[in-house]
Write a structure and sequence with these properties.
Number of helices of chain A: 11
Oligomer: homodimer
Order of helices and strands of chain A: HHHEEHHHHHHHH
Structural class of chain A: mainly alpha
Largest sheet of chain A: 2 strands, antiparallel
Number of strands of chain A: 2
Low-confidence stretches of chain A: 1-9, 238-252
Strand content of chain A: under 5%
Chain lengths: 252, 252
DNA sequence: GCCTGTCAATGGTATAACATTTAAAATGAC
DNA sequence: GTCATTTTAAATGTTATACCATTGACAGGC
């Protein structure tokens, strides 16, 4: 049992880089370095074949990787080709959604994440908002109070209000994460069994209190009030579950 | 200017699904539905060719998609093949990192996200921790106080402490997001120009205060103290920058 | 002016062959 | 018998070639 020291670290682990990985890395670096602007075209597949000496199959596999990562988009046809894009919120949402699904995370986890992120967004919105953004937030909350809205329209308007607050936070990362919580993960809330005049009034009033704090640039108050609001919402959604959670495709 | 009503919505937009996308969707659904356990093997490429009627190239492109998504892994060789995997923290970190890089987000955004997530993790750790987890957290903080540690070792031990707190939170999603902030995004903090006995003592003491709250299962106190701690750290790192931020590969 | 078809470049797909990698299994030295 | 070595089979990795499908500009007919 002596001298059983697993592996003498004489030479390092050699990892054989696959050719399509190498090309993907190279292209990714080029794009992320900013050498190519968003919207610009990359060389065509056949040109890349020439330039790299690889086969078209390998080139295409590399391109597929970058496409999943949200960095490029391929379109057929003359004047089509490969264009550079920016990963958007929905690509982030897809990733988070799969992460959650594949690990069978309980709904509690997503709810906690939402309760973490949303108040922070309100706080930063209070700190960074412009007058225009404040006006937009107020207007959306007023639209929310329209009793003519059906349940679906009310839910959508509600989401738009929350998104507007997120926008005003000037933090695109947290905004994207919130988006991921809402879209990539649960469709449950949109079903929202509860819908009554009382609840709508309560939501509108809660929003109004948050708005007040945002208007006053009082970050701490905005956070506190948003936190209370989001937690209140949970009371409705977490009655049933504790179960695994169902996923809805982003309706997009 | 009459009759310019853009498009009579007579028939819907037709989108041609590419074959590799279809196959990727199908396989993804199968995996996420749990029909195949993690570690199990998928049919080999050639078997998939047979079963689907597609070419091997298309099958491989589909597999490449799932590989980027972290759902499978391909290995060559007999008894190799395609095995089902779970997306891990680092795959999430990669995605977040690219999101941040490609949008040229300022360092402020990441710092804000960290300051949002970390206190929440402390709070949930206080609520959900077991005694074993608490003991581990305490032990790591004591190890941190060893003056024999060089700068690098200290930094690593520090990260391990924060990770231990995250683990105890029982929220794998927020934990993964914190991991993404630390690894996928900035290598800057690891450089940490500041390192003195005073700072180390301050860090140790701040950790101790958080631990106290976690031990007492006082979620609000844990959050508050962790928030103060993380903000204090920022004071050091945000002196220089305001610039775009540099990215470091996760050192694995 | 507005249809309508032609055209050329591009991505999408199929096929066939060869190269490389991997670990089990067979072989051989002692 | 046991250990080291070689063989081998099955899987992914890679290349080459050909053809199909899609798209948007452009020119010509009415």
């Amino acid at each position: 049992m002596q001298e059983t020291q697993k592996s003498p670290p004489l030479i390092e682990r050699i990892s054989v880089q696959k050719s399509y990985d190498l090309l993907a890395d190279q292209l990714r670096d080029t794009i992320l370095a900013g050498d190519i602007d968003v919207g610009d075209r990359l060389p065509s597949e056949r040109e890349l074949v020439e330039q790299t000496g690889l086969s078209r199959g390998s080139v295409r596999e590399a391109l597929r990787i970058l496409e999943v990562e949200g960095l490029i988009r391929s379109r057929p046809g003359r004047y089509g080709g490969i264009t550079v894009t920016q990963p958007d919120n929905s690509s982030m949402a897809r990733m988070v959604g799969q992460f959650v699904r594949s690990r069978r995370m309980p709904l509690r986890v997503i709810q906690e994440a939402r309760e973490t992120i949303e108040p922070a967004l309100a706080r930063y919105a209070a700190m960074h908002r412009t007058d225009e953004e404040l006006a937009a937030i107020i207007e959306l909350n007023e639209a929310l109070a329209d009793p003519a809205l059906d349940r679906r329209a009310f839910a959508e308007m509600n989401i738009r209000w929350h998104n507007a607050v997120a926008e005003a936070s000037r933090n695109d990362l947290l905004t994207a994460l919130l988006y991921a919580m809402n879209h990539g993960v649960v469709a449950a809330t949109s079903e929202e069994v509860y819908d009554s005049a009382e609840i709508r009034a309560a939501v509108h009033a809660a929003h109004a209190r948050v708005i007040e704090a945002i208007a006053a640039r009082d970050g701490d108050a905005a956070r506190r009030r948003m936190e209370r609001h989001v937690r209140a919402t949970r009371a409705h959604t977490t009655d049933l579950e504790d179960s695994e959670l169902e996923i809805g495709e982003p309706d997009e």
